Amino acid sequence: MSDVAKVIRLHDVDFETRPNRPSRVWPAGEPALTPVTSLTDRLAEVEARQPKSLGDLIRGSVAEGVRYTADFARRRLTGDYQVDEFGLDEHLLESVILPMLRPLSDLWFRVEVSGIENIPEVGGALIVANHAGTVPLDGLMLQLAVHDRHPKQRALRILAADLIFETPIIGGLARKAGHTLACPADAERLLRAGEVAGVFPEGYKGIGKPYGDRYKLQRFGRGGFVSAAVRTGVPIIPCSIVGSEEIYPKLADLKPLARLLGIPYFPVTPLFPHLGPLGAIPFPSKWYIEFGEPISTAGYEPADADDPMTMFEITDQVRETIQGTLYKNLIKRRNPFTG
């Protein structure tokens, strides 16, 4: 056996003439490459698809609540929030006040809103609504509806009565929610600043009327809200609220007791005052809030705000629009509590 290794000469093999392998052709519509993902992302997707137990959900909710509370406390303690000249505290409004109202609106009154597109996305506007219910919950539900249903989540600045701001605790919260006194000066300042203001021109005559007069609009004061809109050139948006009349049906009024307490009326309802604190629970009526088409004031001069006849005509137009919409929605409603 020979010990000499056999040597293969490389130049004997003709590489240049060797045929190339055909490149792989991928079927049409199928990607040739799959994007690379990390193992952490794939594990997170698998965990997200797995059903969570009740304990996990509770722990997650508690943890989220703790983080939310800690962040809220930090901002309040460090002063990381702003308050405008009227007292509006948007941080407190969106973190505490509105979240407290949502269960009442969504679960108890089951509020349905229509015509929200009639509220402008920018600039001032004046919402004029009917007032009812013995206790002014309609103002709170209206503010929540404007904030939650409007694409820009605009803050409604309600022009409220003096009694609201004279009441301990409630007055301070009303200021922080952005509300102010129902006077022409404050109304014009808000509207000129491009805010959405809300007014209930019926006042105590509307909210304190007997249940037998439900959904019958009372007189609209002296038309001060119209003059503010005309002077600032903002549109007036009629708003009709159905459902508020049934929450505390007013059967009688203890006027001597009302005078003694210094309040406009002392109502007697099916549950109050004989059931004590339980009488404060409103009936779960079904609510409908409809925003009508804006009534333009652009065609008027600021000086027209001093013309009583012009103000009366616009006021009457707004009132008739609201009353007509109330009747229309009442006809469609089959039951005050189920809708």
From TrEMBL:
<feature type="domain" description="Phospholipid/glycerol acyltransferase">
    <location>
        <begin position="125"/>
        <end position="244"/>
    </location>
</feature>
<dbReference type="GO" id="GO:0016020">
    <property type="term" value="C:membrane"/>
</dbReference>
<dbReference type="Pfam" id="PF01553">
    <property type="entry name" value="Acyltransferase"/>
</dbReference>
<protein>
    <recommendedName>
        <fullName>Phospholipid/glycerol acyltransferase domain-containing protein</fullName>
    </recommendedName>
</protein>
<dbReference type="GO" id="GO:0016746">
    <property type="term" value="F:acyltransferase activity"/>
</dbReference>
<dbReference type="InterPro" id="IPR016676">
    <property type="entry name" value="P_lipid/glycerol_AcTrfase_prd"/>
</dbReference>
<dbReference type="InterPro" id="IPR002123">
    <property type="entry name" value="Plipid/glycerol_acylTrfase"/>
</dbReference>
